[in-house]
């Protein structure tokens, strides 16, 4: 059994019901949830929900420092998470940086393939 590569790599249209798609709060581009990090607010801090199972609203972000700084500049996190007031982003920034580097290393945009089955309706 061989899979044609064009099928699995790029699927912008007609892929509904197969892979959930979210919009990155940094670059505003849409991507499958497997390519994005889920960011949630926890006790006034932003944290990366690596397992995508924390309760509440989530903001989606590419593991990319450029997307992160864009999102911070336009205050996308408080808006996406419906949080009033300041959010401490230090820990989240650290995690995104680390994940961005590990993604570059492997040459793949996928973070943890085994988390794909976790579907979050937020
Ligand atoms: Zn992005």
TrEMBL record:
User: Taking every annotated instance into account, which residue ranges of this chain make up the domain YlxR?
Assistant: 22-83
Span-the-membrane segments of this chain are none
- CDD domains, A to Z: YlxR (cd00279)
- Region entry Disordered: which residue ranges? 100-122
List, alphabetically, the SUPFAM superfamilies matched: YlxR-like
Q: Where is the composition biased (Polar residues)?
A: 103-112
InterPro entries tied to this protein: YlxR (IPR037465), YlxR-like_sf (IPR035931), YlxR_dom (IPR007393)
Q: Name one Pfam family in it.
A: YlxR
Give start-end positions of Basic and acidic residues composition bias.
113-122
Q: What is the designated name of this protein?
A: Putative nucleic-acid-binding protein implicated in transcription termination
Q: Which organism does this record belong to?
A: Saccharomonospora marina XMU15
Q: What is the lineage of its organism?
A: Bacteria, Bacillati, Actinomycetota, Actinomycetes, Pseudonocardiales
């Amino acid at each position: 059994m061989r899979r044609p590569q064009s099928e699995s790599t790029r699927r912008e249209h007609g892929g509904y019901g197969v892979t959930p798609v979210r919009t990155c709060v940094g670059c505003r581009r849409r991507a499958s949830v497997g390519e994005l990090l889920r960011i949630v607010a926890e006790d006034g801090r932003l944290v990366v929900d690596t397992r995508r199972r924390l309760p509440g609203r989530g903001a989606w972000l590419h593991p990319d420092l450029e997307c992160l700084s864009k999102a911070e500049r336009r205050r996308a996190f408080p808006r996406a998470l419906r949080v009033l007031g300041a959010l401490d982003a230090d820990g989240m920034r650290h995690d995104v940086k680390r994940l961005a580097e590990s993604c570059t290393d492997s040459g793949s945009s996928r973070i943890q393939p085994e988390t794909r089955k976790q579907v979050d309706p937020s």
